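Hi all, posting the design record for the shared folder.

TITLE: backbone redesign
STEP: 1 of 1
STRUCTURE INPUT:
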């Protein structure tokens, strides 16, 4: 069974170690985003501090009792007032097993519970695997730009199905 477990303190030592293990299992992603394959505690703390300031929510993605990934989202991006998925990353040992798809489904349900009807995210230019994954899950490219690391990005958006019961 796959679950999203809220992380109340992403900066405590246990959570930092979990983040570092998962992030560093994906050196190609790290290289695309921050220009190096391996992240230090300091790198992760710096990124978390910035995101926590904005109100980002973090979840451990657990398969049974094992943490196999991370999911983050920003309920309201101060730049456009939209909800953004900040990160979905699966430990490389658990890739290609449908965990990412389940994580998206779980996150979308959480967003709907908070009456969020659309969500955005960015994909670094050159991340063909990431772009394909998000397209497959109903996200459409709406524009391009640059992230806070000055990387060229494509911005994707998905309108979440909502149901009005009369």
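Okay, here is what came back for every position:
SEQUENCE:
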């Amino acid at each position: 069974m796959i679950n999203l477990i809220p992380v109340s303190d992403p900066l405590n030592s246990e959570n930092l170690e979990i983040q570092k293990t998962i992030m560093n299992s994906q050196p190609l992603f790290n290289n695309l985003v921050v220009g190096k394959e391996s992240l230090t505690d300091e790198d992760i703390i710096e990124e978390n501090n910035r995101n926590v300031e904005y109100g980002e929510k973090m979840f451990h993605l657990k398969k049974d009792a094992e943490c196999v990934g991370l999911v983050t989202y920003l309920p309201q991006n101060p730049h456009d007032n939209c909800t953004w998925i900040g990160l979905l990353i699966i430990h490389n040992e658990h890739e290609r097993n449908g965990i990412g798809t389940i994580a998206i489904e779980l996150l979308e349900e959480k967003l709907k519970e908070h009456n969020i009807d659309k969500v955005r995210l960015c994909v670094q230019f050159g991340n063909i695997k990431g772009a394909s994954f998000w397209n497959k899950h109903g996200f459409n490219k709406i524009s391009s730009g640059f992230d806070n690391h000055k990387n060229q990005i494509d911005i994707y958006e998905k309108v979440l199905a909502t149901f009005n019961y009369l």
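COMMENT: The chain has a mean pLDDT of 90.
Let me know if anyone wants the other runs.
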